[in-house]
């Protein structure tokens, strides 16, 4: 059987055991209830038993104070619509370590499903904690292997780049203003057509007398 199949089987066995008359039941029947005592006691167990609710009752639980953002468990926030009228109150929350997507707060004697706030994968708490620990270890290894020094070098290089560009821009503006004051055009390339300087025209000696 899978874990879920075994869980359902186990809960049914517990219910069957409690619904089966035992020696103490028979003694109680004889002393108090008469011949129909066992049947009356068996009726105490509802035939439409809510397996999901009974399963959640077996889960470990913690106590949390409801805030405007919900309840926080393991650096994750969970929310249920019933929290809106219970802000500031402490409630019991049952936690199923087979999933981090929901927890089960007790609201009016019933365990409801409160969903996690944000996008989280469907993994167990053990898997999530292991992945988070591995990520932290990689971060520490990066820092220990010179990551901080490399980051500082990159930040310094970028600042030098910005300062150099600022200085060059300021120098270009000063040069342009100086050229404008001296009446020299700062534009590059040949002057526009029609404004080109007219060169002297030389004639042969024999044509000078004409």
How many strand units? 7
| Gross morphology | elongated
Series of H and E elements: HHHHEEEEEEEH
- Estimated structural class: alpha+beta
Low-confidence stretches: none
Beta percentage is 5-15%
Keywords:
3 domains; OB fold (Dihydrolipoamide Acetyltransferase, E2P); alpha+beta; single chain; seven-stranded antiparallel beta sheet; 5 helices; 210 residues
In short:
With 210 residues, the protein is of the alpha+beta class. It is built from five helices and seven strands, in the order H-H-H-H-E-E-E-E-E-E-E-H.
Describe the structure.
The structure is a single chain. It contains five helices and seven strands. The model has no long low-confidence stretch (mean pLDDT 78). 47% of the residues lie in helices and 13% in strands. The chain has three domains: 1-49; 59-122, OB fold (Dihydrolipoamide Acetyltransferase, E2P); 125-181. The radius of gyration is 42 Å and the shape is elongated. Strands 1, 2, 3, 4, 5, 6 and 7 form a seven-stranded antiparallel beta sheet that branches. The protein has 210 residues and is of the alpha+beta class. A hairpin with a 2-residue loop joins strand 5 (102-107) and strand 6.
